[in-house]
Structure to design on (456 residues):
């Protein structure tokens, strides 16, 4: 951890974000750009349309593949030296690759490095690969959290808990069912991310294959570009300006925003359940909850998670609304914005970790849950008036409202109402044995309907 890092992602939380540094750093962007340059060079050598780029020997191809496989700090520093001299980051990668092949048998093909490309042909594909790889790391952490909550939901499917609507006591639920709600919501977003298609373009300076057509007028350039982009595992965008318009990024970022928003909701609910004593937190004897109050055990992990999910959303929303906007055929305002993709995903990534760590410290306080249920017999007014409606009793809602609204009632109070009600003996007997702890409807079944949860 660097104590002089400006961003907490690289400073305080540097250990948490370490897996992302290989994907979202400047070092990683340089490597992804080099990969595109090399893949395009090899692709041309295998194409029948450009005979001037002869097929590569096994040794030549191996040399190029090794340049990518052995890419490290020395390679990145050399490219940055070239960039500092010429003040162009993508051109620096081109010149580096030319520099490396100049002393090999590939030297006569040097000018086919970056052939027909504008910087954005390289950049948009590099960012697509970066984003796809980074999201895969994020997905693993997200799936770990959702899987954990899903298992907790199964285990607590029948643990009765007082509900709170508008912050007031309401018809009971179960701990497991309330957790299952979040799992279902999260899984819809994860499914959309899993099926997501990352896009790329490869059509020159303003998207028309202008220079390509002049150099090779008989080449079916759109099909060549499509084949190359799809060889990278990306979906081809056939109609662009100089840049791929980033609409697919906006779609992805908005999906991440929804996941983060659900997670924020989750953190706040857990925080509230902790404050009510429904969940207990383990107390590490070496930890301090307050600098002055020795008794404190704060839900700090959920608070940290909430802040980072919201910060992630702030950046994701900015990127989703800014990136698709570019003046006419091109402006550079997207360049600086794109460099913050890792910031947005990084804050969500550490929030997932905080959330998981918080869950690891929790246990259900069934005694407190039972106590709260026992103190709120008035919640059975819903069941009683509903049965009375079924039995044809006049104005049962109004009757129960008068008897229970804002009034603490006991089990005996309600039993008196039930016994006096003009309902069948069968219904009366069912209501007389009903208690808050077993008035949970189908909550247990609904929680279990998630099905078995596979291991991480």
């Amino acid at each position: 951890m660097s104590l002089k890092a400006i961003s907490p992602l690289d400073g305080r939380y540097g250990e948490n974000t370490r897996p992302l540094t290989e994907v979202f750093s400047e070092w990683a962007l340089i490597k992804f750009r080099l990969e595109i340059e090399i893949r395009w060079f090899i692709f041309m050598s295998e194409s029948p349309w450009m005979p001037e780029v002869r097929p590569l020997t096994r040794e030549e191809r191996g040399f190029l593949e090794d340049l990518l496989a052995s890419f490290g700090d020395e390679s990145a520093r050399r490219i940055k030296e070239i960039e500092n001299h010429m003040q162009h980051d993508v051109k620096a990668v081109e010149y580096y690759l030319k520099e490396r092949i100049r002393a090999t048998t590939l030297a006569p093909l040097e000018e086919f490095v970056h052939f027909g490309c504008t910087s954005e042909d390289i950049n948009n594909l590099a960012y697509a690969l970066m984003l796809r790889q980074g999201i895969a790391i994020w997905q693993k952490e997200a799936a770990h959290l959702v899987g954990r909550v899903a298992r907790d939901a199964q285990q607590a499917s029948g643990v009765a808990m007082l509900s709170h609507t508008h912050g007031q006591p309401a018809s009971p639920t179960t701990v497991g069912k309330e957790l299952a709600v979040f799992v279902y919501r999260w899984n819809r977003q994860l499914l959309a991310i899993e099926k997501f298609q990352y896009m790329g373009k490869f059509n020159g300076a303003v998207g028309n294959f202008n220079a390509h057509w002049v150099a090779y007028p008989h080449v079916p350039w759109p099909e060549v570009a499509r084949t190359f982009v799809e060889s990278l595992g990306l979906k081809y965008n056939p109609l662009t300006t100089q840049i791929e318009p980033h609409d697919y990024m906006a779609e992805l970022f908005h999906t991440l925003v929804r996941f983060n928003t659900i997670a924020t909701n989750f953190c706040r609910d857990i925080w509230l359940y902790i404050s009510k004593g429904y969940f207990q937190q383990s107390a590490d004897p070496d930890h301090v909850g307050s600098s002055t109050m020795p008794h404190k055990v704060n839900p700090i992990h959920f608070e940290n998670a909430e802040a980072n999910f919201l910060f992630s959303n702030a950046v994701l929303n900015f990127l989703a609304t800014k990136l698709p906007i570019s003046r006419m055929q091109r402006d550079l305002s997207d360049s600086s914005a794109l460099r913050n993709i890792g910031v947005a995903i990084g804050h969500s990534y550490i929030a997932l970790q905080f959330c998981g760590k918080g869950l690891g410290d929790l246990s259900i306080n069934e005694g407190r849950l039972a106590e709260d249920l026992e103190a709120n017999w008035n919640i059975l007014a819903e069941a009683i008036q509903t049965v009375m409606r079924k039995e044809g009793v006049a104005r049962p809602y109004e009757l129960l409202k008068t008897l229970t609204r804002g009034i603490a009632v006991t089990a005996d109070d309600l039993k008196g109402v039930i016994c006096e009600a003009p309902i069948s003996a069968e219904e009366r007997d069912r209501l007389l044995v009903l208690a808050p702890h077993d008035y949970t409807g189908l909550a247990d079944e609904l929680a279990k309907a998630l099905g078995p949860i596979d291991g991480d």
Notes: The chain has three domains: 18-117, 139-367, 376-440.
